[in-house]
Structure formats: C-alpha cells, structure tokens
Amino acid sequence: MVRNLRVHPEFAVLLERPTTHRGCQVKGRFISTRPAKPSERAVVERQAESFCADLEGIGIPRALSSCAEIWPCAAIQMRATELFEQTPGPGAGEPLR
Amino acid sequence: MIPLESLTSCFQGLIPSWLYTCSRDGVPNVAILSHVDYVDSRHVALSFQFFNKSKRNIAENPRAKVRVYDPDTMRAYALRLRFVRTETDGGTFESMRLRIEAIASYTGLKGIFKLLGADIYEVLSVEAIEYEPGLPAASPGIRTQVAETRLPFTLKALQEISDRIHQAPTLDCLLDAILETLENIFGFRHSMLLLATENADRLEMIASRGYPEGGVGSEVRIGEGIIGLVAEARKPIRIAGILRQLLYAAAVAKSAQEQGLKATHRSIPLPGLANPESQLGVPLLVRDELIGVLCIETDKSYRFHEEDRAYIEVLGGYLAIAIQNALLKERTEEPEEYSTVKAKPVAPSIKAERQPKIKVEFYKSDECILVDGEYLVRSLPAKILWKLLHEHRDGGAVEFTNRRLRLDKTLNLPDFKDNLESRLILLRRRLEERCPEIHIAQSGRGRFRLELGSKVELVEQP
C-alpha cells in the first residue's frame, strides 16, 4: 500500500460503521509515512476493540475479528481535500460539508 | 491463478466485499458492495443498485479490483477485473434481483432498493492477500462458526427422501413426512410448506416444522418476501447473511428518507424465525403449474453452493409431483356412495353440555370466520366449516364425505383442480391450533367426522 502511495499519491479512504452502514469517504494526497510510536499503541488498540465489537453486531464473531494483527503498524500522514457521503442509498457520493 | 471455483465461500454474501475503482484522472474510489456473484470460471457479477462514483469511474476506466473474504477464515482475496457489460435480464441478473427484492420487501423498500443491473466483469487475476496490518494472520487453525460446513445435497440424499416419501399413505402424512425428512437428512430444522389456493394472488401455509406457533393458514402474497417472490419467479431463491443485508437495506431506507423519498410499500414480516441467518425458497412445480413453495430457514449461515442449485430444483419438482399425486390418489379413492352417507342425528354429548358455549361468526362479505372474536380462517375453508356447522346444527350431521362437499353447489368449487383435500387438511390443522373445541377427524378415505367439544352458537354477519 505504501509502495503504491509513493508511486501514485492520490488516495481514497472509506470509513464505515458495520452495524449501521453509515459511512463517508475521504479523498486527498499522501504526504509521508513512519512507523507508529509505542505511545500511539493504546489509541490503535482502542479503535480496533470498538471495531471488533461492532463487527459482532453483524454476526462476525470476535474469535475471527480479534485475530487481526494490528501491531506494529504504520502512521500515514495525508492531506484530506474532499469528503463524501457514503451511506448506501440515493445520497451516496454527494459531497459532505 | 487461484481458480474462482475454489472461492465459492467468498461469494455467499456473508462478509461484505470491497470494490476499488479509479477515474480517468487517477482519483481512486472505494466502495462496499452488497453482492459479488460467481458467474463462470472467468467471470463474476457485481450488483449495480445506484448510479454512483464506482459506476462513473468504470465508464471512464474499465479496470477495477474487488476484495472478497472467505467467511471461514477471514482470508482475503484480491480479484483484478475488467468490466465487460451490464446485464438487465438472464439467469445471473434474475438470481441477484430476486435476492435483493426479497430483502427490499422485508424492509418496505420495494422499488427503492432494487437491482438496476448485474455488472459482468472478466477476472484477470486472483491473488491471496498476504499479511498486512489489520488483516487476520493466515491461520489454518482458525475456522469459525460464521458459516456451517455444507450439508450433503447428493443424489443419495435425494434417493433417501424419495424412499421415505413414497411410504406416506395420505396427503396429510406426506406433508409432514417431507418436512421431517428434510430435517433428518439435511438437518433443516425450520421449514414450511405453502400451497397455491383458489385465490391466485396468494399462497397459504399448510405445514410447518420447528416453529412453536405452527402458523397453518398464514397467507403470503405473490411477489412479497422470499416466498412470494419464489412463487412469482418460479425460481429458487437463497439468501445468506440476512442480518447484514437487512442492516444494509435499513441504511438505504434511512438515507432515502432523508432525501425525501418515502418507502411506499409496507414492510412484511420474515416468515418464521425472529432472526434467520439464511433462507431458501424452492418452487414446487409440476410442468409449468405452481403447486406451492417450500421455505427453509436456518439460524446459522448455511452456505448454498452453486452446484446445490440443480439438486434443489430437482427436489422441488419431485416434491411437487409427490403432492399432486397424493391429491389425485385421494380423489380417485373416494367412496362412491355419497347418497348413502346420510346425516345421522346424535344427541349432544354430556361433555359438550358442560362446556361453555363458543360463538362462531361468519362474515359473508369477507368469507371469513371468527371464533369468540378471534380470526380463524377464511375463503373456501371458512365456507366449508360454516356448511359443516350448519348441517350439524340443523340436521345433526356428523359424518361427511369429500365427494358430497365437492358436489355441493353452494361451496362454488371450481370444476377442475378444486384442491378440496388440501383445503380440508388446512381447516383441520387450523382448528387444532386455534379452536380445539371443533375437531375434524378423518374416518376413512374421503370421509371425516365433525366432533364438537362444546356448544356452538352460529351467527351470520353481512
């Protein structure tokens, strides 16, 4: 992924909550990357934990989701330039303001 | 290339798939897809429900990538794709459409949540995604309960079903034997049979297994929910991961509402289980005639495989013939002497005298019967019951024959294919569930007795 970003810095990130499918898409340009610091580990783990909890809500058991390896990880800095609605339905794809 | 056939688990719709596209100017886009279907060893179909950025990108740049997950291991696979065409009819489109419409009708979204097309893509390469942060490390030890292992749809199993069903002596026994056999051979614990009735716009449940409330006599409109859509399309429908798909549809409903669109159609309840994980509806067809629909539900994700489809269709055809044969057999074996079976007056039993009276009301305009204010049954079974109760009250009749009912002009049975036997079974089962004071007991081939456990007051309403 990082290799791709260096070659082609345009990126799109989809953020979605599994149980409600409420989602948005962030677009922008890649700036830089570095290994995540030990001080950032708690934030990453908290995020992973709440994501696994939500996955349980759509029937994916914790035994499966929590085996995802989340550390070590990379921090990626990027400049967000656009934000779009992505909850499925007729309004998906509209710019969010 | 990893053969697509080996990824059939990924195409069950249990875990959402991700679609990556790119505009002509190189702006990427990522979207979650409701369905990726296997078409053949070189093609997949993606559901196209809304005109969106992915769709626009594909028009500018036909290359895409889709990531699918194996629900057993969460192992991810990346498929590089090239857009070929959009199909708006044919087998692939139909099977996707029916699944999506069944979900839509459960959420009141018919017409809004629908398939506009099946986008067919050529698969250029398949690659197993190696470790990356956030993905489960590939571990063969992790097999989960997301999906049950597949059940044996085999010729041997069909043969076994056939053997057991052949032994059912009557239509009544046959209906229960079918559902019992489906549990014993395939492990399907929740199933129901619905038959076509004299009303062309709906089916009625005549037998169920694995539901405490029974539900005989429940009606399903043609075109609504999985059962109604199976009846309309005369094709099997299978849906896996229903919970996830309902959540997806609910998100669409909410977003449609915010856009000022209103779901115009009422939502309809799911057939039986409160939270089914998967459903399978099978049309029961003899030549081109729809006899009924078999519906199977599971509370775990059952994985229907592509090759099961042919077996399921054979099974549906087989059950349809078995039911139709049983109907015809019972009719030809009816006793001839209809005129000799006379109403025999009997004194009301002491038991009946002691019981409190129940009030049976017949609403002429709706052709429906209420017992003590509670809905019991309607249309032909209601007219039959009303007739039986009248003859019992006025002439003390307790013994009846199917033939006599068939020749009774007031019931207005169609001359051909009147389904009288199945309507009597429905009436009897419905009474057992809802009004045990009135009992219909088979007393021989083509004849039955009316037994009353309490006094009955008959009231005719306009």
Label the overall shape of chain A: flat
Mean pLDDT of chain B: 82
Total number of strands of chain B: 20
Helix content of chain B: 25-40%
What is the mean pLDDT of chain A? 87
Describe the structure.
The complex is a heterodimer of chains A (97) and B (462). Helices cover 27% and strands 33% of the residues of chain A. With 97 residues, chain A is α+β, with helices and mostly antiparallel strands. In chain A, β1 and β2 form a beta hairpin. Chain A starts with a helix and ends in a 12-residue tail after the last strand. Chain B is α+β, with helices and mostly antiparallel strands. Helices cover 32% and strands 28% of the residues of chain B. The longest helix of chain B is centred in the last third of the chain and has 25 residues. The radius of gyration of chain B is 27 Å and the shape is elongated. At the A-B interface, β1, β2 and α3 of A face β2 and α6 of B.
Key phrases:
heterodimer, A: 97 residues, alpha+beta, three-stranded antiparallel beta sheet, 3 strands, B: 462 residues, six-stranded antiparallel beta sheet
Question: Can I get a quick summary?
Answer:
Chain A has 97 residues and is an alpha+beta fold.
Topology:
The complex is a heterodimer of chains A (97) and B (462).
Chain A: H1 2-7, E1 10-16, E2 23-35, H2 41-56, H3 62-65, E3 74-85
Antiparallel strand pairs in A: 1-2, 2-3
Chain B: E1 17-22, E2 28-33, E3 36-40, E4 43-48, H1 53-60, E5 63-69, E6 76-87, H2 91-106, E7 117-128, H3 155-166, H4 171-186, E8 190-196, E9 202-209, E10 219-221, H5 225-233, E11 237-239, H6 242-258, E12 278-286, E13 289-298, H7 308-332, H8 350-354, E14 358-363, E15 368-371, E16 374-378, H9 379-395, E17 399-401, H10 402-407, H11 420-434, E18 438-444, E19 447-452, E20 456-461
Parallel strand pairs in B: 14-20
Antiparallel strand pairs in B: 1-2, 1-5, 3-4, 4-7, 5-6, 6-7, 8-9, 8-13, 9-10, 11-12, 12-13, 14-15, 15-16, 17-19, 18-19
Helix pairs in contact in B: 2-5, 3-4, 3-7, 4-7, 9-11
